[in-house]
């Protein structure tokens, strides 16, 4: 069995959105373990939330598979520069673009930057997300509810809409959903609701884009050890994070990378409208 960390973890809390360097134990993004085989040679990818967590693992994997990458992120500059270093060490081009994608103008700027700096878009990974936990619906402010939808689902629509006109047949869109779209955590009500919307959006989008030769799929992670966890969950939940799934531990970001590579691989040309569950053995229906 792989020797990935298991709870209990040290007590820890960070301000949102969290930083990789402060996490104990450190997440594994595949820095030393992911080996590419040219599956994405010459491809151009946009990854939102690409500075850390799942996004960093996908950026590393894509670069080592031969793709150039634009990394969209909020303001975690230190994390973003580390991801940039890992991409360029793989011999691929990395473009960093900070900014808040809850606005349609920033989403269009992300796509425009990718087209001008990378020369096009073959893969769009809609991965950035906002979450916060609340014990009561009365604790969720209107502003918090709206922010969660703007970042998690509205941005996905804006980015996809802007990218489509630059995508050729054979291109693909990969959306990060969650096990929460199937088994919602009640303390993550706003987040879980957006993840359900992403699942539905992906299924409809796949049908809508099929005649253009563009595929749309989703990955549904279970508990994954990223900066989002110590910055958005109560300390007790962080300490025991991942204990509830059959593998009794959280997944590491690197453990999702192969799902994103498979969905982006041109050889997966008949895979569209699918959701790949990466949940540590917990059923996803």
Describe the structure.
Keywords: Oxidoreductase. Residues 1-42 are annotated as: Disordered. This is Dehydrogenase. It comes from Bradyrhizobium valentinum. By secondary structure, the chain is an alpha/beta fold. It is globular. It is 37% helix and 13% strand. It has one domain: NAD(P)-binding Rossmann-like Domain (Rossmann fold), CATH 3.40.50.720. The protein starts with 43 loop residues before the first strand and ends in a 7-residue tail after the last strand. Helix 1 (53-64) crosses helix 8 and helix 3 runs parallel beside helix 4. Strand 2 (68-73), helix 2 and strand 3 (94-98) form a beta-alpha-beta unit. It is built from eight helices and seven strands. The protein has helices at 53-64, 77-89, 104-118, 142-164, 189-209, 228-232, 235-239, 254-264; strands at 44-48, 68-73, 94-98, 123-126, 172-176, 215-221, 275-278. The longest helix is centred in the middle third of the chain and has 23 residues, at 142-164.
């Amino acid at each position: 069995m792989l020797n990935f960390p298991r709870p209990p973890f040290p007590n820890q809390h960070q301000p949102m959105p969290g930083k990789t360097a402060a996490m104990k134990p450190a997440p594994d993004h595949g820095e030393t373990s992911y080996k590419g085989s040219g599956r994405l040679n010459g491809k151009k990818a946009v990854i939102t939330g690409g500075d850390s967590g799942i996004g960093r693992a996908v950026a590393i994997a894509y670069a080592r598979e031969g793709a150039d990458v634009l990394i969209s992120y909020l303001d975690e500059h230190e994390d973003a520069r580390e991801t940039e270093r890992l991409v360029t060490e793989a011999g691929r081009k990395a473009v960093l673009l900070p900014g808040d994608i809850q606005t349609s103008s920033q989403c269009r700027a992300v796509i425009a930057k990718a087209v001008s700096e990378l020369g096009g878009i073959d893969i769009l990974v809609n991965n950035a997300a906002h979450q916060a936990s609340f014990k009561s619906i009365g604790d969720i402010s209107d502003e918090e509810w709206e922010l969660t939808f703007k970042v998690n689902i509205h941005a996905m629509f804006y980015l996809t809409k802007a990218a489509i006109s630059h995508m050729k047949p054979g291109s693909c869109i990969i959306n990060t959903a969650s096990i929460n779209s199937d088994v919602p955590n009640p303390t993550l009500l706003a987040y879980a609701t957006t993840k359900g919307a992403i699942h539905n959006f992906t299924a409809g989008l796949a049908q809508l884009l099929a005649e253009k030769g563009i595929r749309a799929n989703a990955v549904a992670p279970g508990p994954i050890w990223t900066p989002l966890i110590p910055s958005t969950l109560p300390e007790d939940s962080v300490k025991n994070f991942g204990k509830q799934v059959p593998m009794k531990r959280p997944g590491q970001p690197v453990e999702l990378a192969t799902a994103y590579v498979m969905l982006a691989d041109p050889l997966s040309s008949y895979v569209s409208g699918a959701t790949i569950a990466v949940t540590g053995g917990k059923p996803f229906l």
